Every structure is written in C-alpha cells, then in structure tokens.
Amino acid sequence: MGLPSGTKVTSAWDATVTNSGDHWTAKNLGWNGTLAPGASVSFGFNGSGAGSPPAASSTAAAATAPPSPATTRPPRPVRPAPPMSPTPR
C-alpha cells in the first residue's frame, strides 16, 4: 500500500509489515498463510505522520481463498480490523 510521504506504520498485527520508501507491504505470518477454501484472512496496523487515512492507497484489501464445491459448512466470520486513525502528535 502507498502512504503519504512522512507517514509510517508504527505497529501491526496478524502480518509482518515492511517498507521501501512510502510503499508498505504486509505479508502473512507462519500461522495464517494457508487458507481453506472459502476462508479469509485480515490484518491491521496503526500509523502516524502527516497523512490521513483517505490518502492511503492499496492494491489489495483482503485475501480470500476460492470457494470449494465440497464445503459443507459456511466459513467462520472474521472480525474486521479496527479502522486506522491518525495518532495524535
């Protein structure tokens, strides 16, 4: 995802977050990298800096495995990550 210049990720959960300049990448952890058919995964992060949440851009917001015709029960709901809010200076 892209964040405005001077903005950074200060903490993250359920992902390893790294950056190259203003571009940030979140990668799965060892325990949440393989998804069952129809399952999903989410992560969250906190950030700080001059930007605001609407200025952030992302190429992927969630990862979802394709549905399986053999699924006999619906997937468990995943609690969404709390919205990102600017950290007071």
Automatic annotation (TrEMBL):
The keyword Cytoplasm does not apply. Residues 1-73 form the CBM2 domain. The keyword Transmembrane does not apply. GO terms for molecular function: hydrolase activity, hydrolyzing O-glycosyl compounds; polysaccharide binding. GO terms for biological process: polysaccharide catabolic process. Keywords: Carbohydrate metabolism, Glycosidase, Hydrolase, Polysaccharide degradation, Signal. PROSITE patterns: CBM2, CBM2_A. Residues 66-89 have a biased composition (Pro residues). Residues 19-89 are annotated as: Disordered. Residues 52-65 have a biased composition (Low complexity). This is CBM2 domain-containing protein. It comes from Streptomyces haneummycinicus.
